[in-house]
Amino acid sequence: ENDDKQANGIIAFYDVSGATPSFISFVTVGALPDMVKFTPDGTKVLVANEGEPNSDYTVDPEGSVSVISVTNGVPATTATTLDFTAFNVGGSRHDELSNDVRIFGPGATVAQDLEPEYIAINSDSSKAFVALQEANAIAELDLETLSITAIYALGTKDFSEAGNEIDASDKDDAINFALREGVVGMYQPDTIATMSYMGMDLVFTANEGDSRDYDAYSEEERAEDLIDGNLLDADNASYGAAQDEEQLGRLKVTTATGDTDGDGDIDVIHNYGARSFSIWADGMQVFDSHSDIGKITAGRLGLLFNGEDKRSDDKGAEPEAMTLGTIGERTYAFVGLERTSGIMVYDVTNPYGVQFVDYVENIDRSLDEEVQGDVAPEGMRFISAEESPNGNPLLVVANEVSGSTTVYQLTLQ
Q1: Rg of the chain's alpha carbons, rounded to an integer?
Q2: CA neighbor of 188 nearest in space, from 298, 300, 310, 315
Q3: pLDDT in tens, 218-276
Q4: CA-to-CA distance for 123 and 334, rounded, in angstroms?
Q5: Who contacts 201 (Cβ-Cβ below 8 Å, separation ≥6)?
Q6: Which of 11, 124, 152, 251 gets the highest tally of CB atoms within 10 A of its CB?
Q7: 3-state secondary structure of 242
Q8: Nearest Cα to 313, choosing from 224, 182, 410?
Q9: Does 51 lie in the same domain as 190?
Q10: 18 contact partners, CB below 8 Å, separation of at least 6
C-alpha cells in the first residue's frame, strides 16, 4: 500500500513585498522536501528532498535535490531534480562511492538511502553542498552543469584520542569526561554552512548525529545491549565499560556499522554524532572542536550540561543549528545546541586557528519549575550590519521546543 506522506512534494512561491502575501505558483519537487534555499545570486532555489521511508519500510523513496530556476524574479514551472541513482550497485558511478558512506537500510539502494538533510551554497553560487546525515556524508553539486560532483564520506571521530573525551552516561550524576578506546562518533551533520578561504570552499558542519529508527527497522541499541545480545567483540577495549551504566553501558550505538573484520559482531562501537562542529575542505577535515562543547557547557552550567546530563548517553548537547557571519574584519561561527539550548560562538576568521569566543543562552535557570526562555535552537540566520534594519549585525534564532524566535544584536567587545 502506498503512503501519501512519501509522495513528491511541492514548493510554493509567494510575493511578500506587499502588505498581504500573494500566491505566485507552485513547483513539484522530489519526495519529502525538508529544506529550501535560494542561491546568493537569486537565480535558483535548491530543495533537499529527504525521501525518508514510511514506518513499516514498505515505501522508501529516493533522496534527491531539486533545482528551480528563477528568472527576473519569476520561478520556473518545473524543477530539475538531481538523484543519486548513478551511485547504485551496477550504476555508472558506484565505484566512486566510498565504503564509509553508510548504506544500510533494509533492501535499500544507494539512492534510497541517501537522504538530503541540509544545503549550503558557496558565495558565487557555483557550488552547493548537501548534508547526507544518516549516511555520514556530504555531496557536492556543480550548479552550473547541474550535476553531482562528488560524495564525501566524513568518517569517524576517535573518542580514545586526547581532546575527544566524552561523558557517555546519563546515570552517573556527575560530569565525567573520559577517553573511550574502541568507541567512535559518526559526524552525521544536520546544518551545514560554507565560507570561502584562500580560494577554497570550506564546509562547516554541526555534527548532531541521527539514526534510522522505524517500526520495521531500527539500528539503535545501547552499548550494554551489544553485550547482552552477544554482538560486541570481546576484544573491544571498552567491553568491560560497556557493562557499566555509569561508564558506557547507556551509550546509544548502532548495530549497522562497526563490524570491521566481517565476522558478524561489532568490533568498534559507533555513537551517533561527534558532539562538535567541524570544518572540511574537499571532504578532508580542517578543524574539529573536539570536546569543547561538552566541557565548556559543563564549566558554565555544571550538571545542567548535556540537557541536565540526560543526553550524555545519546548525542550530548546535539549541535544542530549553524550559521556564519562577518562583523568588521572577523568572521564568526554560531552553533546552536539543541539539548543545552545555548549558542556557541567561535572566531573562524582563520579556519586553521579557530578560537572559542563565548557561550550565550536566553534562559532563566533560577526558577524551580520548567526552564523559562529559549529552548532547543533549531534554525539560525545572521543578518549583516549592511542588511540590518538598525545598522547593527543581528543573529535571529528560531527555537523549536519553546516556540520562540529571538533576535540578538551583536557587538564586538
Answers
A1: 21
A2: 315
A3: 999 999 999 999 999 999 999 999 999 999 999 999 999 999 999 999 999 999 999 99
A4: 18
A5: 122, 127, 129, 194, 195, 281
A6: 251
A7: helix
A8: 224
A9: no
A10: none
- Check which CATH number belongs to the domain holding 143 and give it: 2.130.10.10
Please check whether residue 390 lies inside any domain of the structure.
no
Q: Which residues contact 396 (CB under 8 A, 6 or more apart)?
A: 380, 381, 382, 383, 405, 406, 407, 408
Report helix, strand or coil for 126. Answer: coil
3-state helix, strand, coil in the chain (%, to 5): 10, 40, 50
Report the chain's terminal Cα–Cα distance, integer Å.
60
The total of structural domains in the chain comes to 2
Same domain, 137 and 163: no
What is the domain range of residue 48?
A: 1-88+117-153
CA dihedral 377, 383, 389, 394 (to 10 degrees): 50
CA 132 to chain centre: 8
DSSP 370: S
Quick check: is 227 in a domain? Answer: yes
CA–CA dist 139, 48 (Å, integer): 11
Q: Which of 249, 210, 258, 203 is nearest to 227 (CA)?
A: 249
* Beta-bridge mates of residue 38: 45
10-residue mean pLDDT profile of the chain (413 residues): values are 76 95 97 97 98 95 98 96 98 98 97 98 98 98 98 98 97 96 98 97 98 97 96 97 97 97 96 98 97 97 92 95 96 97 97 97 77 90 96 97 95 74
221 shares a domain with 137? no
Tally: H helices and E strands in the chain:
4, 29
176 and 267 inside one domain: yes
What does the block give as the cell for 398?
528560531
Task: Tell me: do 46 and 144 sit in the same domain.
Answer: yes
Nearest to 380 by CA among 368, 398, 366: 398
Distance from CA of residue 372 to its chain's centroid?
Answer: 26
* Length of the chain as a residue count: 413
Q: In terms of domains, do 144 and 179 share one?
A: no
Q: How far apart are CA 389 and CA 407, in angstroms?
A: 12
Query: In terms of domains, do 304 and 188 share one?
Result: yes
Q: Are residues 185 and 333 in the same domain?
A: yes
Q: Dig out the grid coordinates for 176 from the structure.
A: 565525567
Rounded Cα–Cα distance for residues 218 and 216 (Å): 7
Strands 277-281 and 284-288: antiparallel
The answer to the question of residue 11 being in a domain is: yes
